[in-house]
Write a structure and sequence with these properties.
130 residues; mainly alpha; 0% strand
Length: 130
């Protein structure tokens, strides 16, 4: 049975928090272009895993309690999730059209699909961690 290395994970999150917050070495927003460039040089398989982890983290924040400090961030996350749901619903609708469904059937399937997506976006966003 898998047991996460909580100490190592805590250190990882603390290091990331320090990176974002400026930390002891004053790394922060001004370093985003450099961090982005470094990320783009990582092996594509690792990039994919890192993106899944980031999406998991973002989606996990969609229903958290907010105050003035994180309200905008949570609103942005919910907009991102909503937009993703709309896009993949339309992609599915194109497939249903090719499969010969009528416009009425497609509209019903879209409504059901979007409801399912909204109930659990994790399963539709390529997130294997939850």
């Amino acid at each position: 049975m898998y047991e996460p290395d909580k100490e190592r994970l805590e250190k990882l999150i603390t290091d990331f928090k320090n990176l974002v917050n400026g930390g002891v070495s004053r790394i922060g927003d001004k370093d985003v272009p450099e961090v982005t460039e470094i990320f783009q040089r990582i092996h594509p398989t690792l990039q994919a895993s890192m993106v899944r982890m980031m999406i998991t983290f973002l989606v996990s924040l969609k229903d958290i309690r907010t105050d003035g400090r994180n309200q905008h961030a949570v609103q942005q996350i919910n907009r991102m999730i909503k937009g993703f749901g709309i896009v993949i619903t339309e992609e599915e609708a194109e497939r249903w059209k090719l499969d010969g469904y009528s416009p009425e059937e497609i509209e019903k399937k879209k409504a059901n699909f979007l409801e399912s997506f909204n109930n659990n976006p994790f399963i539709y966003m390529g997130v294997a961690f939850i």
